[in-house]
Amino acid sequence: MSALPAARHAPWLSYLCLAAAMALVGSYVGFSKLLVLVFPVFLLAWLRFGIAAVAMAGWVRRAPNEAPLSAHDRKLLFVESFFGNFLFSICMLFGVSLTSALAAGVIMAAIPAAVALMSWGLLRERITPRVLVAIACGVGGIALVSVVQRAGSDGAGSLWGNLLLLGAVLCEATYVVIGKKLTGNVSAKRISALVNLWGLALVTPFGVWQALGHDFAAVSGASWWLLLFYSLAASMATVWLWMTGLKHVPASSAGVFTVLLPVSAAAVGVVFLGEHFSSVQLAAYALALAGVVLATWQSGDRAPIG
Question: 52-69 b/e with 16+ CB inside 10 Å = b?
Answer without folding.
Answer: bbebbeebeeeeeeeeeb
